[in-house]
Automatic annotation (TrEMBL):
It comes from Sus scrofa. GO terms for cellular component: membrane. The chain crosses the membrane at residues 274-296. The lineage of its organism: Eukaryota, Metazoa, Chordata, Craniata, Vertebrata. This is Ig-like domain-containing protein. The keyword tRNA-binding does not apply. Pfam families: C1-set, V-set. Residues 20-116, 149-243 form the Ig-like domain.
Amino acid sequence: MSVLEAFTFLSFWALGLSLSRVEQSQISVSAEVKKSVDINCKIESTNFPTEAVHWYRQRMNQALEHLIFVSSVTVPAQSQIGGKSNKVVARKNSQTFTSTLTVNFIEKEDEGIYYCAGCDSSRWIKIFGEGTKLIVTPPDRNLAADMSPKPTIFLPSIAEINLHNTGTHLCLLEKFFPDAIKVYWKEKNGNTVLDSQQGDVIQTNDTYMKFSWLTVTQKSADKEHICIVKHENNKRGTDQEILFPSMNKEVTTDVCLKDTSGTMQLQLTNTSAYYTYLLLLLKSALYFAIITYCLFRETTVCSAWKRS
């Protein structure tokens, strides 16, 4: 290999390593009106000190808009939005390979998802992070209160395991705020994210709840599994890791619960009854609306016929 060929190879190799990942670990941040908030982004790049980091915002039912970009690690970039100077300020930290966007003078109109993006010089494209949702809270919302997700676990029944050779781990998360939440599953000491089912986030009064469940096959019956919960208000800012025992252990546990108090079965029964009641209530309301409409229409037709 000639010197020129070697230089060309090393140049393309370096460009290929220029930008490998853009990560936004905050799924949401909450702030009150007139306050300020920081949104962070980590970029794995060999040219981070000189590369530009871009910030975007997408508000509800609106197109993605470019807010600002910062290229220097010593001089922050500032931008005027809505007639206010320094509305957004972007910085770079070469020691931590992070960029921080500060949104000042928070208003309700600032709600949206904020995206960080870096430039991949090998393909001349931008790589975006997953986004961070900015939530503007009312003044009477007590952000100091414990608004982290409260988990309740439900284990597979013996009948399910014996009949289908599978088991369903169910994780119920309640009484959290804000609604932005991410739930995924892994085997204990494993790195692979498993296929799982996710229920919708449901509002209950002024907080939220969510279901997530994992179907475990006989092949993984001896494995312990973890339900991982990412939320803004988790204690100490770390992800919750909720351990589910292996199905082999669950069989023994299930027998013990049946012989004693049956706590897990009672919880599942109560929860199922609650949602069944809500479903029946909604169906009754729908039937009532349909019958009322039909009666009203029949009365109107009869009145018109009599007049004619």
